Structure to design on (430 residues):
């Protein structure tokens, strides 16, 4: 009987985290098959938070409703590791975090630890989930590391050692695009390299999928597009200056980012290579990247008096403004204006109803309901007995990232290693 190649077009999983969701169709870059060896490859894009900033568009858009009423902690768990990146969530409601020493920890939907794996990979960058829920990150050694169900599945060295590691990009065909600051490579589901290129300058932002290409923003604010298989990327435009935190797709061809020293919200048309300022910060600093709901950008503003959230449409018109948190007056320097120091900040999330989830610079986590009501848990990432002593000393209240976990449930990863699930207090769930 001749050998066959089997392709499973349904996301399969085990572990009891929730319902399995059917996958979408495969992408266009193609998974390689060995016809002499029957195999099962999971393709498509199952539900969940599978990449930094939720999806391949880096939109920050939650496809399930965020909490919109009185917040309370459904559960709190400990990763027992310092965290530097946002958590990921698969289609079953299992969550994943990567520690600063390469530890990977997975939690069930109820917060119970499922497994942990020690990879020994130095200084891991942000992670992504493949179609079969294999977690992949790039280490500072220039190696892509894949972890599945508590074990290291494969390692693939594709680049030189590097401290700057843009967030990778999962593909619909079960593969992934990984990056160091100057190198991009497409790996298949088994870690084999399919294509590779070198960037002319260092990349600083997460990779974005747009117009069938991999889009990269480099340190100068220049934007490059690469079709895997092509020898070199093509420069398509520029934001005119370095961007803050990353960029998000507003539609299939418009990339939006904070640029000009946190002074401008800028949109770049990838088709025409034209950049335009959507808004200039009013007496403060924009904190990037924005969250996108359609053509509306939701962006935080650091002002002398506090932190605000603004909704700005494609024409640059301000649709809403909400005070998120106040701050004490800053002391002026040498008699001049007081400094604004954004420090580490957490990008917001937005859902279809217009509910915004955010983290404050002081370590609080809150929501802005579509009615404009603001609620904050100021002690969400406060040190607790769950945090190791080193975490309390080095990352007392900082937030590593947010992710939608389930309808009306927000997942919070604290740099101290604490993991929280925050939900509507009065919502009943199965």
């Amino acid at each position: 009987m001749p050998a066959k190649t089997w392709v499973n077009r349904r996301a399969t999983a085990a572990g009891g985290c929730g319902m399995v969701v059917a996958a979408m169709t495969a992408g266009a870059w193609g998974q390689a098959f060995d016809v002499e060896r029957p195999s099962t490859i999971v393709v498509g894009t199952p539900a969940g938070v599978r990449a930094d900033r939720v999806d391949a568009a880096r939109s920050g858009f939650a496809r399930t409703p965020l909490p919109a009423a009185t917040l309370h902690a459904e559960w709190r768990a400990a990763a027992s590791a310092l965290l530097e990146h946002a958590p990921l969530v698969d289609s079953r409601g299992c969550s994943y975090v990567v520690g600063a020493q390469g530890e990977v920890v997975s939690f069930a939907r109820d917060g119970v630890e499922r497994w942990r794996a020690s990879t020994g990979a130095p200084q891991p960058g942000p992670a992504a989930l493949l179609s079969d829920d294999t977690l992949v990150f790039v280490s500072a050694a220039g190696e892509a590391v894949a972890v599945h169900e508590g074990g290291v599945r494969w390692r693939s060295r594709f680049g030189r050692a590097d401290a700057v590691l843009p967030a990778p990009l999962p593909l619909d065909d079960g593969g992934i695009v990984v990056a160091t600051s100057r190198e991009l490579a497409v790996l298949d589901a088994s870690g084999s390299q399919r294509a590779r290129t070198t960037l002319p300058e260092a990349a600083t932002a997460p990779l974005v999928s747009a117009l069938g290409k991999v889009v990269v923003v480099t340190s100068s604010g220049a934007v490059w597009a690469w079709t895997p298989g092509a020898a070199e990327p093509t420069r398509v435009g520029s934001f005119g200056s370095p961007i803050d935190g990353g960029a998000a797709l507003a539609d299939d061809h418009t990339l939006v980012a904070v640029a000009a020293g946190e002074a401008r919200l800028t949109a770049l048309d990838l088709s025409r290579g034209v950049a335009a300022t959507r808004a200039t910060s009013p007496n403060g600093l924009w904190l990037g990247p924005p969250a996108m709901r359609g053509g509306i950008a939701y962006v935080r503003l650091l002002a002398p008096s506090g932190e605000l959230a603004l909704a700005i449409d494609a024409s640059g018109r301000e649709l809403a403004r909400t005070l998120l948190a106040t701050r004490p007056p800053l002391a002026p320097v040498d008699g001049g204006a007081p400094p604004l120091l954004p420090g580490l900040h957490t990008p917001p999330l937005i859902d279809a109803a217009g509910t915004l989830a955010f983290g404050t610079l002081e370590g609080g986590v809150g929501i802005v309901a579509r009615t404009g009501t603001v609620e904050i848990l100021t002690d969400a990432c406060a040190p607790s007995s769950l945090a190791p002593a080193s975490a309390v000393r080095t990352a007392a209240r900082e937030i590593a990232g947010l992710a939608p976990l389930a309808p009306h449930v927000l997942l919070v990863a604290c740099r101290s290693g604490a993991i929280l699930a925050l939900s509507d207090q009065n919502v009943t769930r199965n």
In short: The chain has a mean pLDDT of 86. Residues 389-394 form the longest helix (6 residues). Helices lie at 389-394. The CA atoms of residues 255 and 292 lie 10 Å apart.
